Amino acid sequence: MALRPEVPSAAAEDDAGLFDPAFLQSLETLALASRRRVQGVHRGERRSIARGRGVEFADYRPYEPGDDYRYIDWHIASRLDRLVVKMFTEEEDLQVHLLVDASASMLVGTPPKLALARRLAAAIGYIALVNLDRVTVSAVTSAPGPSLGALRGRRRAVDLFQFLAGVRGGGATDLGGALRRLLWTARRGSLLVLFSDLLDPHGYERALREALYHRCSVFLVHILAEEEIAPPLSGDVRLVDVETGESVEITADPDTLRLYAEAVEEFTQGVERFCARCGIDYLRTLSSVPAEVLVTRYLRQGGLLE
Amino acid sequence: MILGAPAFLWALASVPLILLLHLLRLRRRTHPVSSVLLWRRSGPALSSSRPLRRIERTLLLLLQVLAACALGLGLARPEVVATSLGGGGLVLVLDGSFSMRARDVAPTRFDRARAEAEALLRRVRPGQQVAVVVAAPRPELLTPLTSDLGRARAALRGASPWDAPGDVAGAVALARSLAPAGRVRVAVWTDAAHGRLPALPGVAYHAVGRSDDNVGITAFRVFRDPAREEAFLRVQNFGSLSRTVPVVVRLGTTPIARATLQLGPGQARSLTVPLGGGGRLRAELQVEDAVPEDNVAETLAGPAPTPSVLLVGPADPDLLRLLRALPAGRVAATSRADPALWGGVDVVVLNRVAPPALPPGNYLVLGAVPGGLPVDADGALPQSAPAAWDPTDPLLRFVDLRGIHVTGGLRLEVSGGRTVVDAGSPLVWVYEGRGVRVVLFAFSLDRTDLPRRVAFPVLLTNVLLFLGGSPPEGVVGEGLQLPSGGASRAVLTTPDGSRVPVRAEGGVLVLPPFRRAGIYRLEDGGRTREIAVTRPPGDAGLIRPGRLPAPLGDGAERALLRARVSLWPWLLGVAAAAALGEWALATRRRGGDT
Fold it and tell me: What is the mean pLDDT of chain B?
């Protein structure tokens, strides 16, 4: 029987507040950048692929029966004796899906990877809410996890933070199942931000491809712990997987540690290559990097924020 | 470094055992990881499947090896000599007493002292002067102050203890006299078994020995008289526990007496054994104690020899006739007082002859006072008669001096020897020492009626037995002068078989002080003489270590006293700390928090 060692509890984290007010205020100057024109449900502050009642002129087209008379350009009609309708860019809201990997592996690290994932999700979600985008947040676990959807407006930030503070880690990783459940309800063109360590025994590639198939913009925040990059091991050790309970016996001599470092490098390079090939924005970070630094510096450089 | 129990060094064999246990994979710690996915990709199973692994520099292994090494070394009880010797000369004084032969510290007290002295010698700076002194019965200066450390080291290695108490205080005084005051430091290794030692500036004492367990033979001699011959044996228990001591006395290889003595602490018992033949007589105590050397003693047994006699001085027909009638070998007479002629004679009778000095030998002096003796003639002796004498004295055995008259002679003023017959002034005086044995009559035979009494031949027989009736005997720590008998050189063979050449000077063979007890053999020309040498009577066998004086001075003595530093308490402390640390670390790791 494989041993299941104890892992740090998410409850041990500081849930008193995900961010201080000053930081939240600085977030209000930011907005999510979507590389595609979105097609929302409500009028928002984003250019929609739908042409309609916006204020920004887009183009002319010949009048067709049924068009609103208010959009006929009467100056052109008087000069050219032809009816032309003005078109405007419709401003709609952006649907943002925040997926936080809450598997047991995210509890590893100092601080735990899940802590950074929750803070980043809170920051991005807050930015989206301030910009009148619609936010859905879900915890990724092997079983259908908790989710909170259709948040809109600054006032729902409290609900968002309370939900994230209540996310507890545990269980195995199933990225494919979680994304599949999300995509059943997600609109095409949504922005999907995934916070995960991608240590899924079933792989991460298929799940991300399905998201792209649904024409979602995907931004992947790959979180690793220092202990996973350079494990502080020596001597004979039985390594136990905190999710599956499987174990591997190793002798942590310099050769073994070197081989492991090469495997980690190959894994991260593979993720990076996959994302570049599929057009997925990718950011890799360590759990020890402060969320504030990531938001104000690297996520802007990575193109998620503007 | 000095090891008190070197056998415990075998404990260091546990170090390769620990390494072997680390090579064999006996235990694995459990460590949680986020996923074993990447570990499986890295192929670590290859290294974990090997039956042996490389020795890694882990703290646990280091602590285990450290604990094992410290424990093994600590149990071996190492001591180091760590001193600040300072400047000036350094004199190493080794107690050469018989008690330093004790084996209560391995291998013997003297060997331990020598090892410590050699260790101290290794710390001497180049150019510093060192001397070596052995506290023998007469202190021996083996090397004067010298910068040649090799010579000092050779002297230390050649030193050996004596079979007699050493004069430690005299040796210290000799050591301090080697250089002006304050320019020499003295390190003394002693058991202080023979009295307190003086606390002196610049002198540091190092104690050696811890036991008082010794039973020894303190006297073993043969007494002869015309009627019988018997051996006298004295055994003493110097320890603080009662002992049962079986004793065997052998003549040659034949046991002639056995006894078992019950000896309380400090108690002594004596035995007399009648003898019926000649040869080497050996007494053995069948006990186990710290000093086996004094459990054996040897002496010589045999009938009293008939001495050769030379009458020197005016002819006395009555005396000459009597001498020829007594059990004497060759009897001759001469009027010429030439000491060169006396070497080959056992007893010289000086009849009213007073040479300025007596060469070594045995003398009966009648009516004269030779020079060189602790006696002087102070006027004439008036008419007198023996007033006091000791009838138990061997010289006066069966001698009745009542009614004897002396009409004239010499009034003697003695400053040594012993008076055998007294009449207000010594009439018969005996002296032994300086190589001579003298019986001196304060009167000549023509001034007394003694020759006409029956006591005279008996007295003369006793005198000849006393002067020439026993083989020469010696005492450890003292030399011996013997008549050369015309030989110019001789060879002295010691009990351990070594041969020492001896030269004759002035008709006398001067033997060096004896170091060991036993039977010596002296060969001069065609004659061979055996000499029984015994340990000096008294407390030579006392080995109980005494108290050493506290050091004086400016701390230099303390530095020398610190010369021997015990390392084992520190090593055992390190072993305990390492074991505790290893246990704590192993416990913490077992919890998974590496």
Answer: 84
pLDDT digits (tens, 9 = 90+) for A193-205: 999 999 888 888 8
Instruction: Considering only residues B349 and B556, tell me which one the structure prediction assigns the higher pLDDT.
Output: B349
Taking CB atoms and an 8 Å limit, are B35 and A256 in contact across chains? no
Answer whether residue A14 shows pLDDT above 50.
Answer: no
Contact flag A201-B37 (C-beta cutoff 8 Å): yes
| One-character DSSP codes across A69-117 | GGGB-HHHHHHHS--EEEEEEEEE--EEEEEEE-SGGGG-TTTTHHHHH
CA A240, chain centre distance (Å): 29
- State the nearest Cα–Cα gap between A136 and chain B, in angstroms: 27
Alpha-carbon gap, residue B229 to B301, rounded angstroms: 8
CATH classification number, B217-301, choose in 3.30.365.10, 2.60.200.30, 2.60.40.10, 3.90.550.10: 2.60.40.10
Which residue in A239, A246, A258 has the most chain B C-beta atoms within 10 A of its own C-beta, making it the best mutation to test that interface? A239
Q: Which residues of A touch B44 (CB under 8 A)?
A: 248, 250-251, 256, 259-260
Q: How far, in Å, CA of B445 to CA of B450, rounded? A: 7
Separation between Cα atoms, residue B534 and residue B283, nearest integer Å: 12
Q: What pLDDT digit, counting tens, does each position of A34-84 carry?
A: 544 444 444 444 444 444 555 567 678 888 888 888 888 898 989 988 888
Q: Which fold has domain A13-38+93-301?
A: Rossmann fold (3.40.50)
pLDDT at residue A8, rounded to an integer:
35
Contact list in A for residue B28 (CB cut-off 8 A) is: 236-238, 249
d(CA A208, CA B150): 88
Q: Give the containing element (helix H, strand E) for B375.
A: strand B375-381
Task: Residue window 147-186, chain A: list those with CB within 8 Å of chain B.
Answer: none
B491, two tokens: 């060879």
The residue to which tokens 């073994």 are assigned: A256
